[in-house]
């Protein structure tokens, strides 16, 4: 069981992070809202969004916020309602393409986290364990995503890494006991 009100769920592509976050939200409150950040610019993304929608039952409400995530969180966060943000990676890429200040947006989001009024789960891709992107834009994004994940991990009460569908608690982290002899 995860203790705390805010959780960051990290993982690679197809790691099971969204499915895990969905189950976590369903177990945490009877009322649930997903703040969706994806935009369907092509058929593949339209299909991907439809698959995610099919995983949610009628107890969910959806708020689309491809750019204005912070305003959406302020509106939707309340006691007794779980909010699932899926995902920070698409939100950051939307901001990048809109030529917004990624670091300022990340700082504003991290500052908001302790003030959210209900259980909130953030989903984000762990992009730093793969190859370095060959393009400058790709490297800018990868760096910004890494900084955002670090900021949210610090701001949230808990952080979980999902790999192959299996969750591993990162925060709170166990404190190693070091021996001098």
Written overview of the protein:
The chain has a single domain, classed as P-loop containing nucleotide triphosphate hydrolases (Rossmann fold). It has helices at 17-28, 43-54, 69-76, 88-97, 102-112, 136-155, and strands at 6-11, 31-36, 60-64, 81-86, 120-125, 158-163, 166-171. A seven-stranded mixed beta sheet has the order 3-2-4-5-1-6-7, sandwiched between helices. The N and C termini lie far apart (35 Å). It contains six helices and seven strands. The model has no long low-confidence stretch (mean pLDDT 91). Helices cover 40% and strands 23% of the residues. The relative contact order is 0.23. By secondary structure, it is an alpha/beta fold. The longest helix is centred in the last third of the chain and has 20 residues, at 136-155.
